[in-house]
Structure to design on (1211 residues):
């Protein structure tokens, strides 16, 4: 957005474009003084008092990054807003009709001011380019900043040990598959602490969005698409997973809670669950990054060739054993 | 036009507009299916017995071809609804009469019985009297529907009947039609509205089988309204 | 052949008296009621044909019981019947059968507002009422949304009805907002501001209104047809799966979209070719600039939506698979096409607000618009850039992930030309003589709100921050700040400002002040908490949310009721002072220099008895030595040749092309 250029006009010491009578107060100096003092105080208060509490917190690297970026943007945005408001408040109180004597047609005559216009454009452009550079660095360095990066991410974490977890979205529930633990699939999302995790998000039907709020992860789930998002867990605790893309009737109820636990607790949970679910894991299809569920006959028969419940096309979920 | 005539005309138009708005709002609210009450007359400490059935096509109403759940009221009458009001912290014994055929699950994870118990064992249901904890939907008649309440951790796959049999097509079905009896129990949590749904894409004729009855309260979706 | 020289008299001639009134009682002639009959008959016919086509098709009869072919055909032919019944097709049909259509006689009866009229002023007033029907229908739905969100887990409407309401609210508001200014004010004011007697294509202008109103009827049918679960964005493949109301959404957007293209196209041609002599580009009112930029977006962006909707209709009826991945389509395709339209659409809803505020500020500050050229450049900069930002809606979708920095850059760049508008408006306040009349209050309110909306937009454009705020109530609050806080506030500024011109009557300004303060305070109380709700993790379009957010949501809901009630102040004001007890307005109550205020009120059928010759721009307040804005009674020979910088439509030696 527009930056606080109004106030910088004073910084350049610009005399008002079209002269008023002598003894005219130095409006921009006043505005600048008010603006800079309010802005500095507001920024400091925000950064130190509010900033550390800004969601999504610091549970993972992605969350911490999002918090830092949000706070930086807020610290830039506050002076912009305060600048415009200060100027408006000053203008509206100083130049209101009752305070400006004269003929009905008596406002200032300036139709423009080269210096002011140039300064405004230069400053807004600088801020915008700065924001772009900052945002790009903050996107690339933390390996996609927790956002979905598609099937072939080019910005990847440096860690050599990455725990892959598949997030399977379907109307209207997330299930999670742990391919490195025998490929069991469960409704629970348990993560180890201090570990880099790759979420592979896919969908069995319409578009969903996997939003692990406190983890700072958000990735759309598209059918036949493997959307990868990375993060590194930093703290133990519980987090909320919500669907963030409208997916039909139960979109609002499509949430569950997950936990980040210590590595040893995670290992024992995974081993235990793997054993518990072993019987059903055998019925699951071999692990794959994407699925083609509509071909298995459970697609509801929208397409005419598929009206038969037991289609001969066999892919994920349809490995029909001989009866 | 006189002033009073104008007032009258504008007043009438406003009244009509308001009436239409109120009517539409009421029509929306009233379109919800009825709630079957298991709370009134419930004795503290005794379990609630609930009987529900699934049918391949309702056979009547505005969507006769849609698949649906039905619920038996305490007075024995079957009603076309999926909304139940239940007492909190109470054991609920559920009997499902499954009159529909089945298919492989889109996601076999829903073949695992969770969150319910039968025969004193958790994670188990009774299928025609026999305890089952995992259903392989890729063999046999597959799974027709599931009874799942994700926030309560409940998932029960309802095994389908043979699709070539003479299936019941008009609700409510009677036990003369081929069916499976599935029984299980769960304990209600504290007060609140908990959604439940079927996870088998059984909305035939809709993309991914998840339209129509799968997205309409009263057919394949409902609420457990738990009250204190 | 009826050329303009027959329909519109040459300069200097006295306009003819109104033609003979239509024979027979007024209600027998084509009007909104015959249009309604045509719509119903068309729907019935289309539905019957659709049932014929789909009969014996097991997928529909045996399984879903939902015949989208019948619904789509019914709605499409219903709209055709609406146009036919209104008389919108009389001219082309007469031409097809080789008959010469009679030229429209000017009417002064109020029933002309219920008819197909090619008078741009009548069309403007028709649009005015239509956008309010849209606004209040969708506004009631907004009240329903806030009612459901009063409680995190106890439900009043339940999930199904709730998403139907959400989708219907969003879609209707978007349809309304894209024509909110262009329709009523663009059609009414642009010819007056540029010194023209009409728009370039009056029949297209009138047809755009009847398509707009037909689109309302189509989108309203979504509710009885089962609603649509997708929200206004209509994401496929959920769209392909949805109930019959989805057809209303797709057909409705196609109908409204066609009207948008036509309206924009007509206004572009009008602004380029029908400016009075002397009205050079550097004298063009800034409001006209904004309408020109908006019309360019309407014309260029909307066809994408119409085509995308057609693909959706085919997916749902002919079972093609544009949007179904497993069948060779792509679930990303709709997202791309929709936002390729959708982001320019966002600016379709912002630019007219900029134009109104920039137009009004000089009047109430009694000084020239600051940096006029920058304002025009800003609007066109925004319009141009808006075609290059659409994938910022898809940052987490997994599509084109490596291009995210580029779309972050283009999105942030767009804040530079947007900032120009603030340079212009804030500069205009400098050493001004500020009058706090009601239009000025709304204009200042718009600047206040849009600033918050714009700054939060930068948060959304930043990819790492967007990971948290995307799809949350933060976005929701952001675009309500820009559309409602921006465009709707500017629209009310325009209503209070131009009402004396539109109707010859004036609204009560004391009630107007109360209306402003209520709306301003309750608007901010409604939507500001929703930024916080969004950051705290509440996704959009959910019927259940975390218990700790109930306080903020309830605060917002109660404020929303009060916000809704504040509109009633306006309605009461309007009904009382415009209809029941008309208050005659002064000819130029704001002492504006705008050309539109120099015409008599009510504006005569031909607007200008003689085509004016523009002598200066309309912003020379505080320049007593400047020439008046226009010579309203030029000598017949003083045409474009002597004064003309602009290309006049008034050159009587150059007979204009026949009507469209």
């Amino acid at each position: 957005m527009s930056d606080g250029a109004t106030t910088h006009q004073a910084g350049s010491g610009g005399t008002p474009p079209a002269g008023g009578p002598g003894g005219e107060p130095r409006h921009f100096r006043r505005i600048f003084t008010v603006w800079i003092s309010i802005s500095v105080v507001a920024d400091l208060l925000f950064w130190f008092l509010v900033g550390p509490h800004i969601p999504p917190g610091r549970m993972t690297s992605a969350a911490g990054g999002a918090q830092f970026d949000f706070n930086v943007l807020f610290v830039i945005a506050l002076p912009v807003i305060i600048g415009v408001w200060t100027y408006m408040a000053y203008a509206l109180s100083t130049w209101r009709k009752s305070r400006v004597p004269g003929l009905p047609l008596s406002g200032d005559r300036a139709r423009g001011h080269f210096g002011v216009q140039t300064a405004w454009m230069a400053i807004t452009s600088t801020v915008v380019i700065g924001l772009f550079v900052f945002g790009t660095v903050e996107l690339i360095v933390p390996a996609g900043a927790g956002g979905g990066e598609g099937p072939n991410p080019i910005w990847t974490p440096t860690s050599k040990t990455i725990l892959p977890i598949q997030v399977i979205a379907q109307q209207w529930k997330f299930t999670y598959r742990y391919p490195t633990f025998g490929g069991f699939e469960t409704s629970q999302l348990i993560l180890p602490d201090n570990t880099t995790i790759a979420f592979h998000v896919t969908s069995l039907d319409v578009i969903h969005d996997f939003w692990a709020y406190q983890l700072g992860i958000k990735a759309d789930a598209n059918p036949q698409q493997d959307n990868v998002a990375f993060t590194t867990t930093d703290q133990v605790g519980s987090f909320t997973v919500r669907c963030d893309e409208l997916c039909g009737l139960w979109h609002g109820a499509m949430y569950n809670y997950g936990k980040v636990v210590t590595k040893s607790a995670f290992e024992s949970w995974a081993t235990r669950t793997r054993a518990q679910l072993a019987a059903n894991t055998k019925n699951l299809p071999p692990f794959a990054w994407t699925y083609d569920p509509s071909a298995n006959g459970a697609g509801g028969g929208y397409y005419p060739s598929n009206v038969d419940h037991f289609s001969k096309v066999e892919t994920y979920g349809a490995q029909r054993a001989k009866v | 036009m006189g002033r009073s005539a104008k007032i009258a005309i504008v007043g009438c138009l406003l009244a009509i507009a308001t009436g239409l708005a109120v009517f539409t709002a009421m029509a929306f609210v009233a379109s919800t299916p009825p709630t079957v009450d298991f709370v009134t007359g419930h004795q503290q400490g005794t379990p609630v017995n609930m009987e529900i059935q699934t049918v391949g096509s309702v056979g009547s109403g505005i969507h006769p071809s849609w698949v649906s759940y039905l619920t038996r009221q305490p007075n024995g009458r079957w009603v076309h609804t999926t909304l139940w009001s239940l007492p909190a912290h109470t054991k609920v014994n559920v009997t499902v009469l499954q009159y529909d055929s089945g298919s492989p699950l889109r996601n076999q994870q829903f073949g695992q019985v969770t969150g319910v118990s039968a025969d004193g064992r958790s994670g188990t249901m009774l299928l025609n009297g026999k305890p089952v904890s995992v259903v392989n939907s890729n063999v046999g008649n597959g799974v027709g529907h599931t009874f799942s309440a994700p926030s309560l951790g409940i998932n029960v796959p309802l095994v389908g009947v043979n699709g070539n049999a003479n299936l019941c097509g008009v609700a409510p079905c009677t036990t003369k039609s081929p069916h499976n009896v599935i029984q299980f129990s769960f304990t209600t949590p504290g007060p609140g509205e908990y959604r439940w749904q079927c996870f088998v894409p059984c909305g035939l004729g809709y993309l991914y089988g998840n339209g129509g009855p799968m997205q309409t309260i009263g057919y394949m979706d409902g609420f457990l309204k738990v009250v204190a | 052949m009826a050329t303009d020289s027959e329909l519109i008299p040459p300069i200097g001639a006295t306009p003819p008296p109104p033609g003979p009134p239509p024979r027979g009682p007024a209600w027998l002639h084509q009007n909104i009621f015959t249009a309604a009959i045509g719509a119903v008959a068309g729907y019935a016919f289309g539905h019957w044909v659709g049932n014929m086509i789909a009969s014996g098709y097991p997928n529909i009869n045996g399984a879903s019981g939902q015949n989208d072919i019948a619904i789509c055909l019914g709605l499409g032919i219903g709209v055709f019947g609406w146009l036919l019944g209104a008389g919108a097709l009389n001219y082309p049909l007469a031409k097809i059968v080789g008959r010469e259509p009679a030229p429209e006689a000017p009417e002064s009866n109020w029933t002309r507002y219920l008819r197909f009229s090619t008078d741009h002023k009548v069309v403007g007033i028709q649009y005015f009422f239509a956008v309010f029907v849209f606004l209040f229908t969708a506004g009631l739905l907004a009240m329903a949304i806030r009612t459901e969100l009063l409680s995190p887990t106890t439900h009043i409407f339940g999930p199904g009805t709730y998403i139907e309401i959400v989708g219907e609210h969003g879609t209707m508001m978007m349809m309304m907002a894209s024509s909110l200014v262009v329709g009523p004010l663009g059609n009414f004011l642009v010819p007056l501001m540029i010194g023209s007697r009409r728009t370039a294509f009056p029949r297209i202008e009138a047809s755009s209104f009847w398509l707009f109103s037909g689109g309302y009827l189509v989108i309203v049918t979504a509710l009885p047809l089962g609603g649509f679960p997708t929200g206004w964005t209509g994401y496929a493949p959920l769209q392909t799966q949805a109930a019959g109301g989805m057809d209303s959404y797709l057909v409705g957007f196609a109908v409204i979209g066609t009207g948008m293209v036509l309206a924009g196209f007509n206004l572009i041609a009008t602004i380029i070719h029908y400016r009075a002599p002397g009205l050079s580009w550097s004298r063009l009112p800034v409001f006209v600039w904004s309408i020109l930029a908006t019309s360019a977006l309407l014309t260029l962006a909307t066809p994408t939506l119409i085509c995308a909707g057609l693909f959706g209709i085919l997916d749902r009826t002919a079972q093609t698979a544009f949007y179904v991945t497993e069948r060779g389509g792509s679930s990303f395709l709709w997202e791309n096409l929709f936002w390729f339209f959708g982001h320019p659409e966002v600016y379709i809803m912002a630019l007219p607000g900029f134009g109104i505020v920039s137009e009004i500020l000089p009047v109430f500050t009694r000084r020239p618009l600051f940096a006029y050229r920058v304002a025009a450049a800003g609007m066109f900069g925004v319009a141009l850039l808006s075609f290059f930002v659409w994938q910022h809606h898809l940052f987490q979708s997994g599509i084109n992930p490596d291009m995210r920095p580029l779309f972050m850059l283009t999105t942030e760049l767009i804040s530079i030309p947007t900032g120009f508008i603030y340079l212009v408006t804030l500069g205009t306040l400098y050493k001004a003589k500020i009058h706090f009349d009601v239009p000025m209050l709304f204009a200042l309110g718009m600047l206040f709100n849009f600033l918050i909306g714009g700054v939060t937009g930068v948060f959304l454009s930043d990819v790492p921050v967007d990971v948290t705020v995307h799809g949350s109530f933060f976005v929701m609050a952001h675009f309500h700040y820009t559309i409602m806080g921006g465009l709707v506030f500017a629209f009310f500024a325009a209503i209070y400002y131009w009402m004396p011109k539109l109707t010859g009557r004036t609204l009560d300004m004391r009630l107007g002040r109360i209306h402003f303060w209520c709306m301003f305070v309750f608007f901010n109380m409604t939507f500001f908490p929703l930024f916080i709700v969004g950051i705290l993790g509440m996704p959009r379009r959910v019927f259940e949310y975390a218990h700790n957010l109930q306080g903020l949501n309830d605060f917002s809901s109660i404020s929303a009721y009060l916000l809704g009630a504040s509109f009633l102040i306006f309605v009461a004001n309007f009904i009382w002072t415009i209809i029941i007890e008309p208050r005659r307005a002064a000819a130029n109550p704001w002492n504006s220099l705008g050309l539109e205020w120099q015409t008599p009120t009510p504006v005569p059928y031909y607007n200008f008895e003689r085509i004016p010759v523009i002598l200066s721009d309309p912003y020379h307040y505080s320049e007593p030595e400047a020439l008046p804005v226009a010579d309203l009674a030029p000598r017949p020979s003083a045409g474009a040749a002597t004064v003309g910088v602009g290309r006049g439509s008034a050159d009587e030696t150059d007979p204009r092309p026949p009507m469209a």
In short: The beta strands of chain A are 162-170, 173-178, 184-186, 189-192, 196-203, 208-212, 217-221, 227-232, 237-243, 255-261. Chain A has three domains: 5-17+25-97+114-142, 162-285, 292-323. Residues 1-21, 305-323 of chain A have pLDDT under 50 and may be disordered. The radius of gyration of chain A is 29 Å.
